[in-house]
C-alpha cells in the first residue's frame, strides 16, 4: 500500500490536493479530495447594496465570471421582482455572452488544462512498444497536446499544434464577449431587469465574423467531419443508438483509411475529437473499432455504487420570450433542469432537496445536513487544526459537501447532456452501462464537454443571427424598494455545472444574506455526515492510477485525468457566506 | 497622454528602440499596444538578448485566475508568441505548465519535468528569475498563513522562498498588489488578514514581504483583472533592462504602479467613449442607454488608468462603453473605495454638490477639463 498524493493538482482553477491509498495492483482503495484555500468571499456582500453582487461575485472566478454574474443577476431579478418581465432581447444578450464564455471555458479546459496530460511520458512508454501504429499515435498525441515549457527526458518538447492554435481562439472568443460586455474577464454589462448594452447591427456582423473564424479553427483542428453533418447526426439524431452508430461508423471509415499508412494526422481526417473519441476508450477503440491500443479512459473515473450518485442540472439558457421562471422548472430553459439517477432514471429537479454537510470540512457546527438557506457553519480558527493528512474520518477540506436528496451529485457537461437527453452522450452512457462500465467516466465526461461545445456553437448562431433583435427592448427599470424584506434565488449553469446564488435583503434593502452553491463544491466535496464521498472521491476509489501500462506510483497519470476531467474550480468552491449577519460576528457560513 | 498618441507611434516607428532613452521608451510603452511593441522590435529584442534567457516564475496565491486568463487574452502577439519574442522561459505557471506536486508516502517523487515542487525548489536554488505573483496572501489565522496551504507549505512561506531569490517581483492584479477583493471589509477580514505583496490596501507597512522581512523591488500592475498590455509591456521593459531595478522608484507612483499606464494626472474619465454626454450634462439614470454613467455610480473620474485609450480585448470595448460603470479596479482601495458601485460618489461621502447643475453649466473648455475634480473642489468650498 502506497500513499500517492497529488498536491497541488495544477492546471485547474485554484488549489486542490488529492490524497489516495493505492494497492500493489495500482487500484485506489481510499481517497480524500481537499480544497486548500479559504477566501472569506461572500461575507463582503453583507450589509451592502444588493446590486453590487452581480459585479463582485464575478471575482469568485476569473474563468467563468459571467456565470457568477448571471446567477447573481437572476437572484437579483427575483429579489426586485422583475424576473418575469426581463425583455427577451436582454435574455438573448445574456445567452450569447454566456454561450461564448462556456465555449471559451470548455476550449481552455480541453486544450490547456486536460490536453497536456495526453502528452504524459506514461503513454510514450506504452505506445512506442506497439510498432509503427503505436509510434504514429504517440507522435500525434505529443504533437498536438504538449503544453508550454514542456520537457521530456531533458529535451525540450515543442508546444503542441492544437494547444498552440487553441490559445488565439480562446482569445478571440473572449474578444467577442468583450464586444457586447465591455471586457473579459470581469465584464460590466449585467444588471437586474435586463442588460446594459444593446448589440448593434454592426456588433452582430462582427459576432458572426468571430463565429466564422472560430469555426475555421474547429474545421482545422477539432472536428474534421462537416460541423452541420455532425450536429444533424448526433444532437439532432432521432435516437441515441443512431447517434452512437453515426460516430462509430465515421470512426470506422477513418480507421480503414489509416490502417495501412498509419497516418493519424489531421490531414488524414483525424480531428482532435475523432482522435480522442477513437483512442480514449477501450470499449470504443479496441472492442468496437479494433484498434491495437487505447488510453482506457473509460476504465477510470467511474462510480462503483450507482445508488450513491446522481447527475444534477439547474437549467441554463433562456428561451426567446419575455421573462423567465426563477425556479427553473423542467422545460423552462433550453438546457433543462433535472436530475438523473446513477442508474440513468429521470426525475424533476427540486431545490428543496439540497442539503449541505460540514462533517469533514474545517468547520465546527452544532447541527449538520441543513438546507443551504438554513445552514450553519463556524470555521476552525486554530491553525494547528487545519491539517490535510488526517484521513477519511478527519476534517480535511475547506469545501463543504452539498448533497441532493442525501446523495452526491455530479454537475457539469455530462449531467447537462444527460438531462437534455442529448442523443450522443446519452447513447454512450447507456452503452457503457450495458457493458458493465460506469456510465460516467473520464471518457464520457470529456466527450460530453466536447459535444456541449459543438451544441453551443450551433445554438449561438441562432441567438445571434435569428433571435436577437437589435432594435428590441433591453431592460425594464427596477424599484430599489422592492428588495426590502425580500429574497431571491438565481439558478444557472456555469461551464463546470449547476450554480446557485441566493440573496436576502432587510428592511433597509441591504443584503442580510448572500449565498452561493457552486459546481466545485458539488464535484470536489469531501465526505458527508453519513460518510458518503463526493463525486471525485467516488470516482477515484476503485480506479487504477495508471489506466494503461505498469503501475507507477511516481507518475499517477490516472489521478491527473480523473481530477482534471471535472474541470475543477476551487476558487468557486470555497467562499464564505453569512446567514445571520451582524448578530453573530463569529459565525461564518462557508460552502 | 491623451493627445498626440498616434503621432508618437508614427515617430517611434523609425527610431532605434534599444537606443532610446528611458523617458522616450516609457512614453512609447504608454502609446503602443503590446502587439506594436513586441511586433515592431522583435528582431532587436532577440538580438539584444541573444542566447540570454530570462526566466519567469509565476505563482498563484489566493486568486480567481482572472489575471492569467487576461494575459492569455493578450492580442497579437498572444502570450506564447510574446514569450518567444522576449526570449522568455516561463519556467513555472500553475495553470499552464505540465507539472504538479507528486508525493509517495509523504516524499516528493519523480523529477522536475513532472513534479512542480521539485521544479520550484530547483528554480529557487538557481535564482536569477523574475517572480510574478497573482493573488493575495493570507496572513491568518493568527499570523499562521494556514488559510492557504499548497504542497504542504503555507503560501506565505512559499512566497518568502520565491521572493528571496528573485531579481524583482511583479505583482499582477488587485489581489497581489493590495489584497484586492479578498481583503475587502467584512467580519472575516480580521481572521483571514489578506495582504498584497508590498501593500495591504493603501498601507505599504503591511505588505507581505515587509511582514516576512524581505526587501525586493516590487512593481505593481493592478486591475481586476490586470490588462494584458500592462503586464506584457512591463515585463518587456524589465527584461530589456529599460526599467533598471534602481530606476523603479522614478517610473512608478506612490503605489508602485508604472506611471506610464496609471498616470497620476490622467483618469479613465478623460478618454471615456461617453465623455461627450458628460460634457453636455446628459446622464443615464437607467441601464441600457448611451449617455454618461455618472449617476449610475461610475468611478472613472477617480480611476488612474489608460483604459479609455487602450481599451480591452483587442481594443474592442471597455466597461463604460458597454454600459457598466467604471469600478476603479486599479485603485488600492478597491473594492471598498468603489462601493456602492451604482451610487454616485458625491452621494456617498463627499459633501453634496449637485452634479447635474454643474455639469450642465460646465460646457466651457476649461471647466470641462477640470471636470469632476473641479466640482469636488467647489463642493468643499475650495
From TrEMBL, chain A:
- Which InterPro entries would you find in this protein's record? Ni-dep_hyd_lsu, Ni-dep_hyd_lsu_Ni_BS, NiFe-Hase_large, NiFe/NiFeSe_hydrgnase_LSU
Which residues of this UniProt protein bind Mg(2+)? 42, 575
Molecular function via GO = ferredoxin hydrogenase activity; Methanosarcina-phenazine hydrogenase activity; nickel cation binding
Keyword annotations of the record: Iron, Magnesium, Metal-binding, Nickel, Oxidoreductase
Please name the top-level EC class of this enzyme.
oxidoreductase
Ligand binding (Fe cation): 64, 572
Cite the SUPFAM superfamilies for this sequence.
HydB/Nqo4-like (SSF56762)
Q: Does the keyword Iron apply?
A: yes
* EC number(s) per entry: 1.12.98.3
Cell location: Cell envelope
What are the names of the required cofactors? Ni(2+); Fe cation
Q: What is its main location?
A: other
Chain sites annotated for binding Ni(2+): 61, 64, 569
Q: PANTHER family, alphabetically?
A: HYDROGENASE EXPRESSION_FORMATION PROTEIN HUPK (PTHR42958:SF4), HYDROGENASE-2 LARGE CHAIN (PTHR42958)
- Family statement drawn from the similarity comment of this UniProt entry: Belongs to the [NiFe]/[NiFeSe] hydrogenase large subunit family.
What's the protein called, per UniProt?
Answer: Methanophenazine hydrogenase large subunit
Q: Which organism is it from?
A: Methanosarcina barkeri 3
TrEMBL record, chain B:
Q: Which organism is it from?
A: Methanosarcina barkeri 3
Q: What is this protein's name?
A: Methanophenazine hydrogenase small subunit
Q: Which residues bind [4Fe-4S] cluster 1?
A: 64, 67, 175, 224
Q: Which residues form the Cytochrome-c3 hydrogenase C-terminal domain?
A: 266-342
What family is this? Belongs to the [NiFe]/[NiFeSe] hydrogenase small subunit family.
Q: Does the keyword Signal apply?
A: yes
Q: What class of enzyme is it?
A: oxidoreductase
> InterPro entries from the xrefs?
Cytochrome-c3_hydrogenase_C (IPR027394), NADH_UbQ_OxRdtase-like_20kDa (IPR006137), NiFe-Hase_small_C_sf (IPR037148), NiFe_Hase_small_N_sf (IPR037024), NiFe_hydrogenase_ssu (IPR001821), TAT_signal (IPR006311), TAT_signal_bac_arc (IPR019546)
Q: Where do the annotations place [4Fe-4S] cluster 2 binding?
A: 269, 272, 292, 298
This entry's Gene Ontology molecular function terms read: 3 iron, 4 sulfur cluster binding; 4 iron, 4 sulfur cluster binding; electron transfer activity; ferredoxin hydrogenase activity; metal ion binding; Methanosarcina-phenazine hydrogenase activity
List each copy of the NADH:ubiquinone oxidoreductase-like 20kDa subunit domain by range. 64-237
- Please list the residues that bind [3Fe-4S] cluster: 307, 326, 329
What GO cellular component entries does it have? [Ni-Fe] hydrogenase complex; ferredoxin hydrogenase complex; membrane
Q: Which domain of life is it from?
A: Archaea
